[in-house]
Automatic annotation (TrEMBL):
InterPro entries: DUF1996 (IPR018535), WSC_carb-bd (IPR002889)
Protein name (record): WSC domain-containing protein
The UniProt record lists the keyword Signal: yes
Domain WSC: 350-445
Keywords: Signal
Length: 452
């Protein structure tokens, strides 16, 4: 078994001044305080960052955020993208687990260009949700699009402007680069784009937008193993993927961000809190426990979003459409009902359910069996907590009473039907704990995960 860190395969450009923040998502819901304030937004997003992310952006509320789902807690910014979904063969839709969240802050201007920290409340949009062909920013920025993570170095890992036309056995990463030149005046603009633009070919900013900023690269990695490529689509219904877009709302402490941008110990770093020297400016604000326990404080639309069970249609008016075939986004025969906005349900676990996998006693998918949980008391939470406490990133429950841990799904394990994992947990008959030679796998949804 070959173990390979995803870090090696990221879109990171080591020649630029840069730092990377890792995190996990805080919401999967129809909320967009920039493009559709005050209402249930048109499609599902996966959201990262401040716990106050709600339908209206109010600086006074954001300033009181309890926590951030990013590693650096001083940062009360938010980043969001349409969610990657799957169309099941019976026509229902499922959300795909989001396992990897990275945000790069890159200085791609010519050497020695000082970049300015984003002012508080700065907002912008990258990409175009209704695009039917590669958009300008994707041509300009080689780091925007879709990246298949097979861990196999077979040439399929190059970034493409559309969803891949082949299976991604481990991850499919959605990545988007934001504009990095600002007009220096407006925190936002009516189309959320006019106040910013991408740098010119020689790396400088045009006279219309003279202020050099960081290029933010948002990367979300989805666990697409077990899905065919033609099942994947964005939550907008876009099967081609040209309509990939992302939003950024900056709410950093401006002095702190400027210190990090100017601090040599924070530059050229794939992981600013890795084994080597630490990023001094941000180190005091690192808090992994707060990141992992951070829960959304704001109210959200009261609707099923495909995480806990398949849903009959994509939330909103988002019938599937294929721009590669020349199709335009269809309208809906009847306007979908708008859900009420209310309190968030049970907080989402920071471990994602990857589903049911085959297993065999001679070649385990997850190699380490934990016997510390008495066999009559097994629950999913207990197994996940036990694996987490030992530093593992994958946990699996099997045969009602067994708990396995590992850092990858190996052995001969293959995705199985969810219906195969139908045995009740010995410690809680309301939960399912795998089956005979069937393990239900959970994975820690943070930062860098090892795949093989
Ligand atoms: C922050 O969290 C505490 C408890 O963890 C809660 O009582 C408080 O209401 C939260 N703050 C906001 C603004 O919701
Ligand atoms: C449709 O397929 C999904 C995925 O295989 C399955 O979980 C769901 O139960 C099926 N729904 C119906 C109504 O058959
Ligand atoms: C960069 O390109 C622009 C547009 O072609 C040009 O006006 C500008 O002088 C160039 N700047 C440098 C430093 O080469
Ligand atoms: C989209 O259309 C192209 C071109 O006809 C086709 O090859 C592809 O399979 C279609 N994608 C899906 C998801 O159906
Ligand atoms: C910009 C910003 O959100 N600043 C806040 C960061 O968090 C601290 C507390 O952790 C606040 O005091 C800052 O106002």
């Amino acid at each position: 078994m070959k173990t390979q860190s995803l870090a090696v395969l990221s879109a990171f450009v080591s020649s630029s001044d840069a730092f990377l923040l890792m995190g996990q998502h805080i919401a999967h819901e129809r909320v967009d305080p920039i493009v559709q304030p005050g209402v249930v937004s048109g499609h599902l997003h996966d959201v990262v960052g401040a716990s106050t992310f709600g339908v209206n952006f109010d600086p006074a509320v954001w300033a009181k955020s309890n926590c951030s789902s990013m590693q650096v807690q001083e940062n009360k910014s938010n980043y969001w993208m349409p969610s990657l979904m799957a169309r099941n063969d019976n026509g229902t839709f499922s959300a795909i687990p989001l396992l990897e969240t990275r945000v790069y802050y890159l200085n791609n201007h010519p050497d020695g260009t000082k970049v300015k920290a984003f002012p508080q409340g700065f907002r912008m949009l990258a990409g175009n949700p209704s695009a039917t062909a590669p958009t300008g920013h994707m041509d300009l920025m080689s780091s925007s699009g879709f990246q298949c993570q097979n861990g196999r170095n077979d040439g399929r890992e190059n970034i493409q402007p559309h969803l891949p036309y082949f299976e991604c056995l481990d991850f499919t990463r959605l990545t988007l680069a934001f504009p990095d030149c600002w007009d220096g005046i407006n925190l936002d603009s009516p189309d959320h784009k006019a106040h910013v633009t991408y740098r010119l070919g020689n790396g400088t900013c045009p006279l219309s937008h003279p202020v050099s900023m960081m290029e933010i690269d948002l990367e979300l990695g989805y666990w697409t193993r077990g899905y065919r490529w033609d099942q994947l689509l964005l939550s907008t219904g876009d099967q081609a993927g040209y309509g990939l877009h992302a939003d950024y709302l900056s709410f950093w402490d401006v002095d702190l961000l400027q210190r990090a941008l100017d601090d040599p110990t924070c530059q050229h770093r794939e992981n600013i809190f890795g084994d080597n020297a630490q990023c001094q400016a941000l180190l005091p604000y690192r808090n992994d426990a707060a990141m992992q326990s951070c829960k959304l404080e704001a109210k959200i639309p009261q609707e099923e979003t495909g995480i806990t069970k398949p849903i009959p249609s994509l939330p909103g008016c988002n019938l599937p459409w294929n721009a590669t075939k020349g199709e335009a986004k269809p309208s809906c025969p009847a306007a979908p009902a708008t859900p009420a906005i209310g309190p968030a349900a049970t907080p989402q676990s920071s471990w994602a359910n990857l589903g049911c996998y085959t297993d065999s006693t001679t070649n385990r998918g997850l190699p380490i069996q934990l016997k510390s949980i008495p066999s009559g008391t097994m629950t999913i939470d207990k197994c996940v907590a036990a694996c987490a406490s030992k530093g593992y990133t994958f946990a699996g429950v099997e045969y009602s009473i067994e708990c396995f841990c590992g850092n990858a799904i190996g052995g001969d394990s293959k995705k199985a039907n969810q219906a195969d994992c139908d045995m009740k947990c010995s410690g809680d008959a309301s939960q399912l704990c795998g089956g005979g030679n069937r393990v239900n796998v959970y994975a820690k949804a943070i930062g860098v995960v090892d795949v093989y």
